[in-house]
Write a structure and sequence with these properties.
By secondary structure, the protein is mainly alpha-helical. Helices cover 81% and strands 0% of the residues. This is Probable membrane transporter protein.
């Protein structure tokens, strides 16, 4: 194991944790870094290795947000359980079939998300009550199933999709959406981590130091998001979505 590679990956993991705690999408930084740095390993092993640092970071983000933002406990608990099961199923599916078709689909969705968020200035700036309690419950649980499976099967952008869903479908503002998204993302990361642990597809010599770096980045990112509020998170969200679109488009045309 080259220590320079470990240090490099820890740097990327710190940045991933920082970004992910603010608006999600840390996997867009951390996963490519592993793929490029360790091309000699199978992709499922590298994906599995990213799950431990992602889990540590999402747990830290969830802890920081929970101290400052109220969450809907009666719905978020079942949503996390649903997302856990769906993520496990997605991780298992990844070991059975390729996921290459996901990137073009995700690209189309992200372009639509970017245009909508850019043109709708008040999107996610304040919480709005536009669904009934029963609808809120149903939508959150369906989100847990769909996005949970996506995270286990493909992953990049999961946090951003969760934030978008909480704003567009539930009526949260950016800060509240980020707080709930970190809880659900912690659940999906835990499921994938346990799955890949069971499969023996984790490189601990890389995963453990990266986990410490990711956790540190998440601590700073969450504190900054809480301090700066919705306007700051909205700008960060747009920048991240734009970067994701560019990356996915580049992967498709190169």
């Amino acid at each position: 194991m080259a220590y320079s590679t470990v240090l490099l990956l820890c740097g990327f993991s710190f940045l991933a944790g920082f970004v992910d705690a603010i608006i999600g999408g840390g996997g867009l930084i951390q996963t490519p870094a592993l793929l490029f740095s360790l091309p000699q390993y199978p992709i499922p092993t590298l994906i599995g290795t990213t799950k431990i640092p992602s889990l540590f970071g999402s747990l830290m983000g969830a802890f920081q947000y929970s101290r400052h933002v109220a969450v809907i406990g009666r719905f978020i608990g079942p949503m996390m359980a649903i997302a856990f099961g769906a993520s496990w199923l997605g991780s298992w599916t990844l070991t059975q079939v390729p996921n290459s078709f996901m990137k073009p689909l995700a690209l189309i969705i992200l372009i639509g998300v970017f245009i909508y968020t850019l043109t709708k200035k008040d999107f996610g700036q304040v919480s709005q009550k536009f669904v009934t309690t029963a609808q809120q419950q149903t939508r959150m649980w369906l989100m847990g199933a769909g996005i949970g499976f996506y995270d286990g099967f493909f992953g990049p952008g999961t946090g951003s999709f969760l934030v978008l869903g909480f704003i567009a479908l539930i009526g949260f503002d950016f800060l509240k959406a980020s707080a709930h998204a970190k809880l659900v993302n912690a659940s999906t990361n835990l499921a994938s981590t346990l799955f890949f642990l069971n499969e023996g597809k984790i490189l601990y010599s890389f995963a453990l130091p990266m986990a410490i770096a990711n956790l540190s980045g998440a601590f700073l990112g969450a504190r900054l998001a809480i301090l700066k509020g919705n306007s700051f998170i909205r700008v960060f969200f747009l920048l991240l979505i734009a970067a994701t679109i560019v990356r996915f488009a580049w992967d498709l045309v190169k």
